[in-house]
Amino acid sequence: MASLASPSLLSSLTRSRTGRVSVSVLSYSCCASRSFRRRAKCNAYSIVANRRVFLGFGALFVDQIVTMASGSGGVGRSFVASARPRQGVSPVEQILKDVEWPEQFPFKDEDFSRFDESPDSIFYSEPRFVTHIDDPAIRALTDYYSKVFPPSNTPGVAMLDLCSSWVSHFPAGYKQERVVGMGMNEAELKRNPVLTEYIVQDLNVNPKLPFEDNSFDVITNVVSVDYLTKPIEVFKEMQRVLKPSGLAIMSFSNRLFFTKAVSIWTSTGDVDHAWIVGSYFHYAGGFEPPAAVDISPNPGRSDPMYIVYSRKQLSA
């Protein structure tokens, strides 16, 4: 495939008043290639007209989003400075520090469109008994869980694993009185050894969680937040069903089903992703300021792994 910066790929490449590059992509010209193999590959990555693509500009994207949302025209506090990496500090961990959020949720409906808009129930109809991140990333996530989860077998503790499957990556032998898995494939959920119960539900069709208020101490979501097309509705529901001071942990990598992830995710980079997930917590309301943690075990050599977490406000 042609380089993302090549003239054959981009219909327009403009520079804003502040000198920053903005990109509008109308189509991939490679879809006119002679090879059927190339045509098939291009079709999988074809972009609908007028879809906005930011091409992973990192913190620069965040700065532009905030500028556009605030209408400041480039005047005001820059998020780029706050996200520039300090030696030994991941920029992912810096991006959610001292955030000045736009007044309104800065994303539009088209930001949550996907290449494949067919029903998710079809896509997930066949079980996939595989892991979607590599072993070092799994170990890093499990180790993180071991540090922040309530002790195993704590009376009264209930946990919810959203977008669950046949494995939740909890510490070995970890148990609680109630561990609920909510996912898309019953065969996968049945095989998950940590679950005490499960529910098959498509959150993109019905984001309402079938639980009472203040039901759970911890909610987890592993490498699936990028598939949510109604994230604010889901995060509002998470806030409702969490107990006061309950913990919500969203973990993600750069591994995904590309055609099912939302546009705003596939067109941005890791630092942006942390800011995006943080915005879900913020605009859902009722959460403490979110924070990001980079738990990548071997940067550049194995799958990266990131956490954005928050707690339900005590007064919520």
Automatic annotation (TrEMBL):
User: Entry's InterPro entries?
Assistant: Methyltransf_11 (IPR013216), SAM-dependent_MTases_sf (IPR029063)
Q: Has the keyword Oxidoreductase been applied to this entry?
A: no
MF annotations from Gene Ontology:
S-adenosylmethionine-dependent methyltransferase activity
Name the UniProt key words of this record, in alphabetical order: Methyltransferase, Transferase
Q: Which domain of life is it from?
A: Eukaryota
Gene Ontology biological-process annotations = methylation
Show where the Methyltransferase type domain sits.
Answer: 186-249
List the PANTHER family. Answer: OSJNBB0011N17.9 PROTEIN (PTHR43036), S-ADENOSYL-L-METHIONINE-DEPENDENT METHYLTRANSFERASES SUPERFAMILY PROTEIN (PTHR43036:SF1)
Name of this chain's protein: Methyltransferase-like
Q: What is the lineage of its organism?
A: Eukaryota, Viridiplantae, Streptophyta, Embryophyta, Tracheophyta
